[in-house]
Design a protein that fits this description.
Length: 416
């Protein structure tokens, strides 16, 4: 029979995989196949590892002193014990890279060497911190099973057999419990950090969505205004086409209207560039408000029960650009809505001032409400939209709490 035929006809083992030691180690130590990937220690890791090394050395020295006092122990066994203890203390520096391998190796070493007891406890604690319970159970179970044999082989001269066994069993269980507690705390902190990052990401996405919706609403309004300008321009151009014999004054007046409409259409077109336009809206075709509609807005708010004071000091209000007036109106409208929701009963002051060649300033301020106000749900998307409007108009908008506890919205819009 050839070697190939023998290999094909050889019986194949189909039993449990954990029967083979290599498979067992692979199942228990997931880092065995990633030994080349070594994480870099931080300053805190160096301090902790050095402290563990010193603790292992200190416990080893105490054990070595106990060995010298034990005259019944053969000299060769004492020397072997101390050699294993020294090697174990040096192996403490491998506890982060191979926690399971070190803890598993310390089971037989700790059974043979009294000076390696500190390293065995540290390795078990490290394993409980860095690995799930199913890995810790193998090592801890083996250590607990060897405790009675250890004190039968090397009895403690100061403690009875039962007391020594119980004391070491309690120490082993406490070490495992402490390590699992530290692991659970670390997992909780990682979970909280992950939730915080996801909350920040969701808040940023909501703000970006609100900004995009505000841009789309502004684009729709600009579309309506631009359509109005172009329609007016087309009407006057058509009149000139069908009335070439019109009086000179009418032709000059129509040309002036065409020139002014084209100029205003270009201004509106500059504002709409860069703004993504969505589909049709329910507001399509609705007349757009201007600064002159502020009086009507304030009157409607007063009829609804609000206390509103309007201080309007605008020079030549009729010459306010339509886009600037529309933005100022929307700012006042949103600010009054917020004041009605979050500060019911408080008196709201609306101030509008400016002139040609200067900035148009809009300020809406309300004091803190009297008494307790039930919380009103809101994500601040209205204020995000107002800031977007002011930015697209070339201005700026600020909002926040006042020193008295009220709220203020302040905007600056260029008036060229």
């Amino acid at each position: 029979m050839t070697d190939d035929k023998a290999a094909r006809t050889a019986p194949v083992y189909t039993g449990p995989r954990w029967f083979f030691p290599s498979a067992l180690i692979h199942e228990l130590d997931p880092d065995a196949s990633r030994s080349g990937r070594r994480p870099r220690r931080t300053a805190r890791d160096w301090v902790v590892d050095f402290s563990c090394f010193l603790l292992a050395v200190l416990i080893g020295l105490v054990g070595a002193e106990a060995l010298r006092d034990n005259t019944e122990l053969p000299h060769a066994v004492a020397v072997l014990d101390q050699v294993l203890g020294a090697l174990s203390c040096a192996a403490v520096w491998l506890r982060r890279r191979r926690p399971f391998g070190l803890a598993a190796a310390m089971v037989p070493v700790g059974f043979l060497s009294e000076t390696s007891g500190g390293v065995a406890i540290i390795a078990l604690f490290t394993l409980a911190v860095h690995r799930p319970l199913r890995y810790v159970a193998w090592v801890a179970g083996a250590q607990l099973a060897l405790v009675p044999l250890y004190f039968w082989w090397r009895p403690d001269p100061d403690l009875p057999y039962a007391a020594a066994v119980v004391l070491l069993l309690v120490l082993t269980v406490a070490t495992v419990g402490w390590g699992m507690f530290v692991r659970s705390k670390r997992q909780l902190m990682l979970s909280l950090r992950d939730r915080a990052r996801r909350a920040e990401t969701e808040a940023r996405l909501r703000a970006e969505q609100a900004q995009r919706l505000a841009r789309e609403a502004i684009a729709r309004e600009m579309h309506d205004v631009l359509a109005h300008r172009l329609t007016l321009l087309s009407v006057h151009a058509g009149a000139l086409e069908f009335r070439p014999d019109a009086p000179r004054d009418e032709i000059a007046r129509a040309a002036g209207v065409i020139r002014e409409s084209a100029h205003e259409a270009l201004q509106d077109l500059r504002e709409i560039i860069g703004v993504l336009r969505a589909g049709d809206s329910e507001d399509a075709g609705r007349p757009q408000p201007t600064l002159a509609a502020l009086d009507t807005l304030v009157a409607e708010s007063r009829q609804a029960g609000m206390k509103v004071t309007l201080d309007q000091r605008v020079t030549d209000a009729a010459s306010v650009p339509a886009s600037v007036g529309r933005t100022a109106y929307r700012i006042v409208q949103e600010a009054l809505t917020n004041a009605r929701k979050h500060a019911p009963g408080a008196e709201v002051t609306v101030s509008v001032a400016g002139g040609p060649g200067e900035d148009l300033t809009v300020r809406v301020r309300n004091p803190p409400p009297e008494g307790d106000v039930p919380p009103v749900p809101g994500a601040g998307q209205g204020l995000i939209g107002l800031r977007e409007r002011a930015t697209l108009a070339g201005g700026s908008l600020e909002h926040g709490r006042t020193p008295e506890g009220g709220f203020e919205v302040s905007a600056r819009l260029p008036w060229r």
